[in-house]
Records
---
Amino acid sequence: MAVCEVCNNDYDMTFEIHAAGAVHVFDSFECAAQRMAPVCDNCRCRILGHGLQSDGQFFCCAHCAREQGHAQLVDHV
């Protein structure tokens, strides 16, 4: 069994995510998102979809990007 790096649950169905040369171990997608998903630089929510990026900042949507002065970013609908 392996231990989740977020909640420390010792669980027989953990899984690994390999990213940027590191290996991460989680027991749920919730824990994986908590550790791996970027955070919106405006509203602070976890970005679980595509999100937007500008000048090194991450945003969950175009509204949040505009709130931070990035009017050129648009959502794709």
---
Amino acid sequence: MNENLDLNEFHWLLAVVQSIDVGVVVLDREYRIHVWNTFMENRSGLQPHEVHQQSLFSLFPEIEENWFRHKVEGVVTLGTPAFTIWEQRPYLVKFKNYQPITGQEEFMFQNTTILPLQATNTSIEHICLIIYDVTSVATNKQQLQAANLQLQQLSRTDRLTGLHNRGYWEECLQHEYARHRRYQSMAALVMFDIDHFKKVNDSHGHPAGDKVIQAVAEVMREQVRDTDYAGRYGGEEFVVLLPDVDSAAAKLFAERLRRRIESLLVTYEGQTIPFTISLGVADLSDPAEDYQQLIERADQALYAAKEAGRNQVKVYRGNPMAPPPRTRT
């Protein structure tokens, strides 16, 4: 009676192992395969008799052997399971992905459990691998992360120009100011706007004005370093935050930008629109109460450039200047 019961239990257990939707592999201490369930057969295309007593590493050379051996030795020594997750390693054995919903993924993402199998004499002579297909979970998480990253990027970006919006570049400026206060680092701010921009809109229309603004943004992207922050202040006004740069170097950058834009010709509906910019430069060499004071100083220098005749660069020198009006042409 007991023998029949044990035989039935073994039969049931075998049926479960073959039917469950996870991979089950049993290896001996030489990493030779002894159990290969239906899941593994269907995903690998290898029949149980083809893999029996074969080395796992010879069948799946993508497994990093030293890493896997170290992982298994820890399981055997401690007698406790170990786990791998797809975020750390996308897969243990590389299977193609056949799921219709996540079909855009080339391979199956996997989580793996490594179990010690204790023999009747309590020694651990075999280990069991349980391989889970987590492609749907991984794909959903990756898509969510990509969507969040895109939303984060959109929240920082000016829609018309693709430059940093005011909220984001002010955050960057605030960070640079805090770094300056702590480490005495340098940073400069270049502020500029398009000369007589109202005439561009009045003469050619607002779509032409938008094209001019976009052309300026493109030139800015060409001129800045990877570590700089090119942003839109609002309307036809722009800023460039230059970390680790003083006003002298910032002036050279501003002059280069001014000359580049002066030579730029924007064409809209068959008409060429020439234009120039005026620029103001300020840095953190003069004591400032907060980061906003650097904006005010660059703005004052820009106002001075306008007053001096436009299409030029002025550097804030600490001299008192009249607060500039917010509307400039």
---
Amino acid sequence: MPPVSKVQKLSQDDKAWLDAELIKRGFSGYDDLEAICRERGIDISSSSLHRYGKSFNERLDAVKMITEQAKAVVDSAPDDEGAVNEALMRLVQEKLFNLVIDAEIDTSKLDLAKVAKAIADLGRASVSQKRLAAEAREQARQELLQEQEQRLEELRGSDGMSEQLEDRIRGILLGKA
């Protein structure tokens, strides 16, 4: 088993600073970055910084690609019955699966329970999203029906409309015709 990277041993604040600095520098200038790290009291060689920077940049590129794919899904299809959200969750599930496979992770050390929980959480999120969307549609429908009913009440008797005509209009507006 290889030794733990010095970058992984950094405090949360130092690691956040290093990540931001790598992005700011466009993942280059590792010799200068090594000197700045030394000034901050961080003893990491430029080659270690380069190895970490390369890995970090690859992960960042993968996240950007997933984000672009998700945006393309959203842009290409109107959200009908939560289809876009479902497609995005499937994309995340697929990427998670591919990440496990492509990373050549030693599956004996992989916490499959956590991976399964993440996938289950995505499934529950999908169900919740569909339920909330249905509730929102029903609420909007009820509000529209109440609004139409109120309009009919305002019109009642104001222009001498017959009761039969009024009932027919009511049926049309309320979807009962």
---
Amino acid sequence: MLEMRPDCERCRADLPADASGAFICSFECTFCADCADQLDDLCPNCGGELMDRPTRAKPLHAKYPPSTERRHKG
């Protein structure tokens, strides 16, 4: 199950689990759409492709909570 990290690792933009606009690589490094575009859809951490992250429906957050750990790297 995806962690659904709460923010962009590059610019700290909030990325709610139930909203579109987040991009992830196979290691779940997470970036907002603007940063993913600036990175040419390549993860700066592993070099993997950044893809649209699926959303998690709000009613499922209680049973399957998204991560609250922020991983800003700057």
